[in-house]
Amino acid sequence: MHNKKIFIIIVFFLATIILMAVGYSTFATDFTIDGTAEITGEWDVRITNITATQVPDGCDAGTPSFTKDSINFSAKLNKPGDEIIYEVTIENLGTIDAELQTIIFTEEIGGIEEINYTTSELKKDLNVGDSTTFNIIVTYVKNTKEIPDVKTKTLTGIIQYVQKENA
Question: What is the mean pLDDT of residues 77-92?
């Protein structure tokens, strides 16, 4: 009789466990989640033009050229006081707003003092579709008294736009 009670208890517990498993599977649901993320933004801040806008008589602005990330010009100045102005255009053709981070213009170390380079300001924020123009002004110093032995001076510049921080 004692064995029969134990047997009944074991059967009862087994039946309870089976019933709980069936109940759990009846009230349980598996979800499947699939996802994909894609970056669709385009970074495309570039130089789109360079033009000599002021060339005095007797001077030569050469044929200024550009690629999307560089410009090249060769100014030939005739006499003291001559000044050639190059207008450079930068555009944001991408889909990401940009802001100006760095401007560095350096003249050749040890270059002649009779030639000066100056630049105008650039637009700080360059949002999608915006453009900015700035001038590079090459000047043969007006109060020069003698023609120097070395007659050239090189300018090197870096302008860096970066992704604009979201406010």
Answer: 96
